[in-house]
């Protein structure tokens, strides 16, 4: 074979061989690039644990809901994830704005950043593949560029501060689910909205729309979609050009509806009606007289029944029946959501003007209607998850002035107040309760009395409760294997970790101080009556930004009698002892059997065997730290003594805990029990 022919074959063979794949070069691996992009996006976010990204496999979903994330996300870094299709960061405490560059991610299909603290104007760039966008319960003041989301199917911007309908919203012809509620939004209905024919779910309640809503539209979307939806110029019309209603329209009645018909009557029918009008005057008069007489008899009958009911209530039979008849503020059943929304709207309508009293902001004028707007009509989406220690339903709300609060429905007695006490007595009791101020007590910010319903307003604690931090969140050092250069961030997280023994001791001391303050009563009340908590559990201990504990859900009246957990200060001491055992051992669900087991181990001098291994690892098995842990378990042992007389007072417990470990003074230490 000639040499030049051989050379040609070698060249052809070399050019035909496949190029080296990216897997042979780690620096060009897509998975590695995605991991670095995620780390860069969350470098300023606390409590973030980098997800494990498989080598050379691009990230398609980023789901971190309810992870207690706080800080600002670098959204532009996420735009570099070429395969990213779904983002779920809902239920955190993320702050800042979302820039337009984020929407450059080419594969983005669904974004859920609801229930955060994001704000400013939401600027959207071209993202034709985006199908679902949920930015509800944030602080956005507007939406710009929404017309670029041409493929959008579901849009939820409820419970923000958007005062005008987003420009270009009506161009979104593919939208099937649209929620604009709770914004005080101004606009024209239905002109500023997408075509209603393609929308299956709509909610524009608690806004300031103008326009005409026909009965067919109300029947299609339900009355709850239009609760407080418009200003004075919004009209509900009986005339319907939509499909026939499936049930009578709940829109406001019109006096001419019986005469005008449905809009399909002919001129002949109208003429016939006018000719017969005089003929039937006498018949109408007789009918009216009969109706008046019947109404009088009915009123008498109702009065008799009411008297009988009142007598039966006085005999002690009103408790269960009254609770059955009372309007429900929270959703109780999945299939009756719409009906309960209507019930809530009816309940609020009668007392919508009931004032909200805020002790520290007396000039802020709010009403029950404002609370309903801030909680989406006391709906399921704003209701806080049921916890084991909560005494009643609670809802998260953001009031004017960026005031984040929890609205709690009062059920049963509180602060010595009976369920049926008059509004004046209730207001006095709530004002007395608000005078309980201490760094380790969650203060009462305000109240609202609307008929028999009583609502209390408390500060919203972003960090959640002690049970969540002990048992539901990953503790210890964050996993930094996938990214480097996180030493400073790791050290900061270590200081905030509940696995850190000094933090756990500080939590125990703070709870003890708060209980001791409650048991002393409050100054200026003219009496030394202790305030008994009655149900101290980790879910009723909330944590502040610095993990300083605050006792919540207190205010039960003092009651006599003994028992381990009775409504007495001694019962609170027992509950505190159980909380200390849970805090030091890391074990949940303490009952009589587990309490007896732990007390036996402590009594036998083997307390160190039941200390939470996570805490011992953090303390590096130091002799001094282990001594402190054992001493704290002995405090739990003393507080859970079977005889109430043998239990220490909470003020004594505070002194013992302070002696176990020297801790820096907390803010307001001069007012705390010694």
Automatic annotation (TrEMBL):
Give the Protein kinase domain ranges: 380-660
Transmembrane domains' residue ranges: 283-310
According to the record, the signal peptide region is 1-23
> Keywords on this record?
Leucine-rich repeat, Membrane, Receptor, Repeat, Signal, Transmembrane, Transmembrane helix
Give the Gene Ontology MF terms in alphabetical order: ATP binding; protein kinase activity
Q: Which SUPFAM superfamilies match?
A: L domain-like, Protein kinase-like (PK-like)
Q: Where is this region: Disordered?
A: 237-277, 314-339
Give the UniProt entry's GO cellular component terms.
Answer: membrane
Mind telling me what this protein is named? Answer: Phytosulfokine receptor 2
């Amino acid at each position: 074979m000639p040499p030049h022919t051989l050379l040609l074959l070698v060249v052809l063979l070399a050019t035909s061989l496949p190029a080296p794949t990216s897997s042979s070069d780690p620096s060009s691996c897509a998975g590695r690039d995605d991991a670095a992009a995620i780390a860069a996006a969350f470098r300023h976010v606390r409590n973030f644990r980098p997800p494990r990204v498989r080598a050379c496999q691009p990230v398609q979903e980023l789901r971190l809901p309810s992870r207690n994330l706080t800080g600002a996300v670098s959204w532009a870094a996420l735009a570099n994830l070429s395969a990213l299709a779904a983002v779920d960061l809902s239920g955190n405490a993320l702050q800042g704005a979302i820039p337009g560059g984020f929407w450059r991610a080419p594969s983005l299909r669904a974004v859920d950043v609801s229930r955060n603290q994001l704000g400013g104007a939401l600027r959207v760039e071209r993202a034709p593949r985006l199908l679902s966008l949920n930015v509800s319960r944030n602080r956005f003041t507007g939406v710009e560029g929404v017309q670029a989301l041409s493929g959008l199917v579901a849009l939820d911007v409820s419970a923000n501060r958007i005062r005008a309908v987003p420009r270009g919203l009506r161009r979104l012809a593919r939208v099937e689910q649209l929620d604009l509620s709770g914004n005080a939004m101004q606009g024209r209905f239905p002109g500023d909205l997408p075509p209603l024919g393609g929308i299956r779910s709509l909610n524009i309640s608690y806004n300031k729309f103008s326009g005409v809503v026909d009965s067919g539209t109300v029947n299609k979307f339900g009355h709850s979609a239009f609760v407080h939806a418009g200003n004075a110029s919004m009209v509900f019309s009986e005339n319907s050009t939509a499909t026939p209603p499936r049930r009578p329209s709940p829109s406001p009645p019109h006096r001419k509806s019986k005469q005008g018909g449905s809009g399909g009557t002919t001129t002949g029918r109208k003429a016939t009606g006018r000719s017969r009008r005089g003929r039937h005057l006498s018949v109408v008069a007789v009918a009216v007289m009969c109706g008046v007489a019947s109404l009088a008899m009915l009123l008498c009958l109702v009065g008799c029944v009411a008297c009988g009911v009142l007598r039966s209530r006085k005999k002690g039979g009103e408790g269960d029946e009254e609770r059955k008849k009372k309007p429900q503020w929270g959703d109780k059943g999945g299939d009756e959501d719409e009906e309960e929304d209507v019930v809530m709207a009816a309940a609020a309508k009668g007392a919508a003007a009931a004032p909200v009293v805020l002790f520290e902001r007396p000039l802020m004028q709010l009403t029950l209607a404002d609370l309903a707007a801030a909680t989406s009509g006391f709906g399921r989406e704003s209701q806080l998850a049921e916890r084991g220690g909560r005494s009643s339903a609670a809802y998260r709300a953001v009031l004017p002035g960026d005031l984040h609060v929890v609205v709690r429905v009062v059920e049963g007695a509180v602060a010595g107040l009976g369920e049926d006490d008059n509004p004046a007595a209730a207001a006095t009791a709530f004002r007395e309760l608000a005078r309980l101020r201490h760094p380790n007590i969650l203060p009462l910010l305000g109240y609202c009395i609307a008929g028999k319903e009583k609502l209390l307003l408390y500060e919203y604690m972003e960090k959640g409760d002690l049970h969540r931090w002990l048992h539901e969140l990953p503790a210890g050092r964050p996993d930094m294997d996938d990214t480097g250069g996180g030493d400073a961030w790791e050290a900061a997280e270590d200081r905030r970790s509940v696995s850190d023994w000094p933090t756990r001791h500080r939590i125990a001391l703070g709870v003890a101080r708060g209980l001791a303050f409650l048991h002393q009563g409050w100054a200026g009340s003219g009496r030394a009556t202790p305030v008994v908590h009655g149900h101290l559990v980790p879910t009723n201990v909330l944590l502040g930004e610095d993990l300083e504990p605050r006792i919540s859900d207190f205010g039960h009246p003092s009651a006599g009698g003994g028992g381990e957990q009775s409504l007495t200060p001694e019962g609170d001491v027992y509950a505190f002892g159980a909380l200390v055992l849970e805090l030091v051992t890391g074990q949940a669900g303490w009952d009589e059997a587990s309490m007896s087991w732990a007390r036996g181990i402590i009594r036998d001098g083997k307390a160190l065997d039941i200390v939470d291994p996570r805490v011992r690892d953090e303390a590096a098995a130091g002799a001094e730290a282990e001594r402190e842990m054992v001493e704290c378990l002995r405090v739990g042992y003393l507080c859970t003594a079977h005889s109430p007389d043998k239990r220490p007072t909470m003020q004594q417990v505070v002194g013992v805990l302070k002696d176990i470990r020297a801790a820096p003074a907390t803010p307001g230490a001069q007012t705390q029990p010694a």
